[in-house]
Amino acid sequence: MPSISRRTLLRSAAAVGAAVSAPTLLTACSTGSGDSDVSNAGKKLAPWPAYRPTTTAPKPDLAPTDAGVQAGYTAYPSDLVKSVSRTPGDGSTIKVMTVSFGTPPKPASANQFWAAVEKALGVKIEYTIVSQADYQKKMATVMAADPDALPDIINLFSGFVLPREAEFVQRRAEDLTPYLSGEAVADYPNLANIPTHAWRDMGRIGGRIYGIPLERPLPGSTLWLNQEMFAGAGMKEGWTADDFAAVAKRATSGRTYALGAAQGSMFGNAVHSAAHNAPQEWAVTKDGTFQPGWADERFKAAIAFQSELRKAGSYHPDATSISQIDLTTLYYNGTVGSMQDGFGAYLPKYRESKGKLTPAAAVPYSVDGTPGGIVAARRSFGYTVLKKAKKERVELLLRILDYLAAPFGSKEWELVHYGVEGTHFTRGKDGSPQPTKLGEVENNTNLPLKYLAEGPQVLFVPGMPEAVRALHAWQLKTVPRAIRNASYGLQSRTKNAQGTTLKALLEDTVTGIVAGRVPLSEWDGAVKKWRSRGGDRMAEEFAKDYDANT
């Protein structure tokens, strides 16, 4: 396989890589002389912010592990701490912009949640909220606009390719290295509480730190089951791939289907390829060689397995055209017994099921006697950058973000996530916040402050301690077998320029094979085409950048 190793690179005088930059598809589509500027190769790398875990947050009921299992809270803390000593703002107006997955909020003048946050922060907030569907188009406009017109705080969402993003950030955003690198972050205790893994997966640009990451748990794409449906069909501990197929077939009857999938998900391929222990997009060997997961025989075996599931009738017949939103509705009403979604979707899964079903994260089946793996997520969901400004203004904006990054168990976290007690939420019997009718409209989903800054994620489901125990136990079983995409935090010039098109070539082929429109024999040819058109160049570029940062 034509790829490049670290030893080869060390012998090469031309070992200049692309940048470790933004999260996954958000790195710059760089061309020309700008490449050497955003690259980390040959640069002095700024130390990551010194991690200082909070000492005031309540002790979790279920302990985290160094491997990545999250802290779990089976009850809401009874004594909330203060994590910010003073009002961070100075009465000025700040302009912010984030992606949104909710509905547009009520205007600030009629929004009590908005007003309460402004009062706590000590600023007026002019908020530009961009729906996920419009995000790429809107960001292209923002990036091309006059620098003076930029918002003060910009959320860069990790779900899309933004051409030449690293160069945009380096040119237009404030270099935060002097404020956050090493011990400097101690001036912002809640930002110092963000674990190093989130900063690493965000990455540097030109060796410098330009953003603040949105930390996320290690589990990524997860198969969410209807526990009752799958248990009733014979699901058992330690199931094999054959057991999974048999259970899915038994759970499918009439207009009820065991397996749901959404458009673009390749029939939930991430979950099945991980269960087959295939690399998740990229693997790296001990000598620094990058190998594509697409070319791995285990990935091909997962496609074949999914094809057999579809032939058996276990998938919903509209699996290639249903939107993720509509699929979620089918999951809640029992039409489908499972769906692939991010692990972080556990909270709405438990809340919205409303007792009609018990959501459960599936333990991967084994293949040929080998326990299955799970998808390891990028530990940074996106990142936040600041418009270039004078030192005093930058420090003000960082204090604002420090407040928003308050840890679970703090008064600041409760305000930002639930609003004002008696107005936006009441207390359940266990003391946990329960949204009021107003709180279902005025909240952190529709006014998505959580995409500006957020503290480390914990496991907590209000009023549902058994759900927290189940999720924590699932993580203990599965996190040690999480399969990480080795390209996280690295930049490839070819991927930035061609990655979306090349990936679509393979994803369309996977979907076609599973759907029965394309024979499995076409897969090797598609991979060969992908490699010749840029896949092998990506391997070389990732290897160079990996070497520069290891």
Automatic annotation (TrEMBL):
InterPro entries: TAT_signal
Keyword Mitochondrion set for record: no
Protein's recorded name: Sugar ABC transporter substrate-binding protein
Coiled-coil ranges (or none): none
Keywords of this entry: Signal
SUPFAM superfamilies listed in its UniProt record: Periplasmic binding protein-like II
Keyword Signal: yes
Signal peptide boundaries: 1-28
